[in-house]
Amino acid sequence: MHEVCFILNDDSKEWPEYIASLFKTSKIKVRTEFDSALANTRTKNAKGPLAKVTIIIVSPGHLTFLRGNTDFGYKSLVPDPGAGILFLLGVEKDDLNSLGVDRQPLSSRFLNFAKWKQFDHNHTNDLSQYAEKLLQTISKKPPVQPPLVIPKGFRLVPDMARSEVG
């Protein structure tokens, strides 16, 4: 899995390289995905995140894309809003409250939208520093163990009996 993934529209294709150049750690594995390509190949059968940290470049072109593609969202691509960053480029935060053709706010495409960290083009250095710190924090977390699922009709039985004498 890559460490950082940028998701963007064609109108902001020069930004990932610039932001990545601001990372102090040059060994960070970065990938770039265009929203239209993801919509064609991944959304319908997405199974988890594309990277440890995902930076979505929200540009006018990306807003237009989201408005017209009602089945595209970030809930499965970024299942942990703490690992997602919105980079607002030529748009305002309120633009994500506008409605898509399905009459739903664009912000509904993001899991726990209010928890996503947001930066604009005036704070690009802050964005790169935050992404690096976030990556370090995520890399130190132990993997989450899925809960034990007991199939229907089965029950747990202790494998050792113990008695106490008082």
Provide structural commentary.
Strand 1 (2-8), helix 1 and strand 2 (30-34) form a beta-alpha-beta unit. The chain has a single domain, classed as Toll/interleukin-1 receptor homology (TIR) domain (Rossmann fold), CATH 3.40.50.10140. It is of the alpha/beta class and 166 residues long. The protein contains 4 helices and 5 strands, in the order βαβαβαββα. The model has no long low-confidence stretch (mean pLDDT 85).
Mean pLDDT: 85
From the 3D structure, determine the CATH topology. Rossmann fold
Pattern of helices and strands: EHEHEHEEH
Helix content: 10-25%
| CATH class membership | Alpha Beta
Counted up, domains total 1
N- to C-terminal separation? 56 Å
Features:
166 residues, alpha/beta, Rossmann fold, five-stranded parallel β-sheet, 4 helices, 24% helix, extended
Task: List strands and helices in order, with pairings.
Layout: E1 2-8, H1 15-21, E2 30-34, H2 35-41, E3 51-58, H3 60-68, E4 84-88, E5 117-120, H4 124-140
Parallel strand pairs: 1-2, 1-3, 3-4, 4-5
Gist?
This protein is an alpha/beta fold and 166 residues long.
